[in-house]
Amino acid sequence: MESFDLMFSNFGIFDLIDILLVAILIYLFYNLLRGTIAINILIGYLLIYLFYLLVKSLNMRLLTLLFNGFFQVGVIALIIVFQPEIRKFLLMIGKNFKLYRNEYWYRFFVRNKTIQREAELAQLKPILDACKSMQENSTGALIIFAKNPEEEHFYKNGEEIDATVSKRLLESIFNKYSPLHDGAVIICEGKVMAAACILPLTDNQELPPYMGLRHRAALGISEVADVVALVISEETGNLAYARQGKIKSNISLHDLEKNLRKDLL
Ligand SMILES: Nc1ncnc2c1ncn2[C@@H]1O[C@H](COP(=O)(O)OP(=O)(O)OP(=O)(O)O)[C@@H](O)[C@H]1O
């Protein structure tokens, strides 16, 4: 009881902040793992650890020795097993930091708002027009908006295009008779960089059944790269929008424009 009192007599504001920060980190990490098979791996690992504590307290030497060896390389094993999740986690932190040093303030304070709006609309118009027409014709499409072509390697497996974005170009690529219609188109800095790209699929198990491979590829790439992924469903013509490992389905063209403006421009 005395040691308990002693422990709390030293408890200060920084301890409270410390605990809060750890709780936030655990919550963020749990959020990343939720719905993926990684959460099952973590639960398995924790169960083995509990079993290890049990055999240790019962003084079962042979089993303790065995588990000791396992847990000595535990941290390295965890880093290897959770490598994709740790990567996503770091990416998430980096991205949020980047938000503060983008051109938001410059644009907000310095540039004339009308000119800015016109320029933004001009950039988005061919994409929005193509989406509208593909929606009406129920043409399936997967479009990735990348921010930095140098950083991203996921489109290297597709067909390099490097052409200015236009409505007709997007429609031609996703026309079901086009040899390039399968896979994703990558747009970066106003250019169609590549088409027919194969993207990593998400292993999220909470997706509704109507989200097939196209949606899984959109969500998958948004989990591992700083991109926006847009899906037009071939079956329903619905639009879905994925970013930072989250996907919103059935969004309107108006919401699409708003989101693209917010996330890309
Ligand atoms: N790994 C991948 N990377 C990029 N595109 C992919 C990938 N896997 C599948 N696709 C695309 O998704 C198409 C198949 O989509 P599927 O019908 O499974 O998806 P969906 O999410 O149900 O969408 P839809 O509502 O359009 O049917 C393929 O023809 C291909 O163009």
TrEMBL record:
GO terms for biological process: cAMP biosynthetic process. GO terms for molecular function: adenylate cyclase activity; ATP binding; diadenylate cyclase activity. The chain crosses the membrane at residues 6-30, 37-55, 61-82. The keyword Transcription does not apply. It holds the Pfam family CdaA_N. It catalyses: 2 ATP = 3',3'-c-di-AMP + 2 diphosphate. Residues 83-253 form the DAC domain. Catalyzes the condensation of 2 ATP molecules into cyclic di-AMP (c-di-AMP), a second messenger used to regulate differing processes in different bacteria. Probably a homodimer. Belongs to the adenylate cyclase family. DacA/CdaA subfamily. This is Diadenylate cyclase. The lineage of its organism: Bacteria, Pseudomonadati, Bacteroidota, Sphingobacteriia, Sphingobacteriales. The gene is cdaA.
